[in-house]
Structure formats: structure tokens, C-alpha cells
Amino acid sequence: MQRNGPETLEEKLDRLIEAVSRLAPPTARPADFAAADCFVWSAETGELEAVERVNRVDIGLICGVDRVRDILVDNTERFASGLPANNVLLWGARGMGKSSLVKAAHARVNATRGSEPLKLIEIHREDIDTLPKLMTILKAARHRFILFCDDLSFDHDDTSYKSLKAALEGGVEGRPGNVIFYATSNRRHLLPRDMIENERSTAINPSEAVEEKVSLSDRFGLWLGFHKCSQDEYLDMVSGYARYHELAIEADALRAEALEWATTRGGRSGRVAWQFIQDLAGRLGQPLKD
To answer: DSSP of 57-78, one letter per residue?
Structure first.
């Protein structure tokens, strides 16, 4: 129905309020931690998205890192039991199972947890500056959480590392007692060398500037190093995958093809071993187990 006469002030205000309401972000839904054991933090919506099917491998298939595996599982078990535990930085060679080990250790510990499972929450590198908001949600929950960031590093002019420093150990409140932080990186100090050297050459007090950059890694109580594997370790990985997936191939042929594959890739690692197994299974016409 068409109205007569000019629009009243009250009607104009109603339209303005309605327009502003449409611009406002939707209210975030409360986290349902009973929905899953793993979640992904969505910084855009301020919500935790449940992951029903986690992309991970059994911890028994991760070879060549026995010592760091045991240290990580022990640290995770202590945290899950309410005992003191450290933030962990898994650093080193690409493709050696750093992120796989975090997810596998979480599954190993939860296998014995019963009704109080440990929760794993992944936060993307570009969302690090939203950590305070995420911490506010987690500290109010009754569960215990591993906060996991894969491939963590910082580039030039990136100041979000300060948010991470405060979330790990700094700030008035500090890290909530029910949260621990695990990160993987190819860099032990998380920042590029030339970024640190630039601070050294331009700062009024160079040593203090460098200390600020390096101190980010110091917030991690455990540094677990991953190094390039030997030929024997690489072949052990391949054999372990082949046995697990019951691939029909003779041991000598498996060894020869695996070495040829590593040569064409120009290196050996857990990732290269898994890529070879996928290729082999495809050529054999065999599906891989979940």
C-alpha cells in the first residue's frame, strides 16, 4: 500500500537502525565441544568449526623420529592429566612428519582418556592476531585444549608475533591453565635471519631488538628438532606403509622402486615415502586403508 505524506523522523530512524543491523556481523554461536575432539578456529565468524574426520595417520607409521615422538606424547599425556607441561615447537626439515606427529599424539593420548577427551584446535597462521579472542572462549570451558598452528613463521613488517608472545606467556592473565600451544615450523627462531639482522643494524640498542625477536621461540619450553632422514629410515617408512596397507609387492622390488622414486624427487622424507606409496597403490590397483 502506498503511503501519503512525507516520511516521519521515527520512520527514518527505524530504517537507519535496520540498515545498521544488516551491516553488523552475525552473533557467533556458542562452541559445542561435545560435537568432536578436533576443531578449526574461524577468525572471520568467531566460531569453532567441528572436524568430524581428521586427516591423520597412526602414530606407529611415523618412523625415524622415535625420541621426539616419545617426548611429545609424554608432554601431551601430562597436560591431559592436569600436570605441568610445556608449549612445544616442532621445527626442522620439510616432510618429516611434524604436523602428522601432533595429530597422531593427540589421538594416542585420547585413546586412553575415556569420557574427558583432550581437544585439538587448529588456528591458521594468518589468524594469530585473533588469539586473545580465542583464548577468552577456551579459558571458560571445562575441557583441556591443544592449540595447534601448522607452518608457523613471520615475515617482514609482521607484528602479529607479539600477539603470540602475549598469548603464550605474557600479559596480565597469561596463558590459561587449560590451554597449551603446539606449533610446527621450518625455522627454529620463526623469523627470517635478514629480519633479525636488519634490527641489529638499525636499532638504537641492537641487542635488545634481536632479543625481542628471538624471545618468541623462547616461549616454547620444548624444541623438538626434525632432521633429514637416512636411506635406511626412508626405506623403513616405505616398508611400514606397505605392510599397513597390505600392498602386493616383493620386498626387493619395493626397495628398488622406493629408491628410484626418492632419486627423482631429489631427497628423502616421510612425505616423499607417502607420495611413493600412493603412486604404488594406484599402479597396483589397490585402495589404501583409511
So the answer is: --GGG--S-HHHHHHHHHHHHH
pLDDT in tens, 136-164: 899 889 999 999 999 887 776 666 677 77
Residue 221 belongs to some domain of the structure: yes
8 A C-beta contact, residue 97 and residue 65: yes
Amino acid at 248: A
Scanning the structure block, which residue is given the C-alpha cell 606409496?
277
Does residue 270 contact residue 64 with C-beta atoms inside 8 Å? Answer: yes
- pTM of this prediction? 0.79
User: How many domains does the chain divide into?
Assistant: 2
Do 276 and 151 have their domain in common? Answer: no
Strand partners of residue 89: 183, 223
Q: Within this chain, do residues 85 and 47 fall inside the same structural domain, yes or no?
A: yes
Question: 91 with 114, same domain?
Answer: yes
DSSP-H helix ranges across the chain: 9-23, 66-80, 98-110, 131-139, 161-168, 193-202, 206-218, 231-244, 251-265, 270-284
Q: Domain of residue 238: give its range.
A: 231-284
Alpha carbon distance 290, 280 (integer Å): 16
Q: Residues 178, 143: contact at Cβ < 8 Å?
A: yes
| Residue in 94, 91, 151, 66 with CA at minimum distance from that of residue 266 | 94
Residues 118 and 210 in one domain: yes
Query: Residues 147, 257: one domain?
Result: no
Of 172, 173, 149, nearest to 161 (Cα)?
149
Please state the separation of Cα 197 from the chain's center in Å: 28
pLDDT tens digits along 208-242: 555 555 567 778 889 999 988 899 999 999 999 99
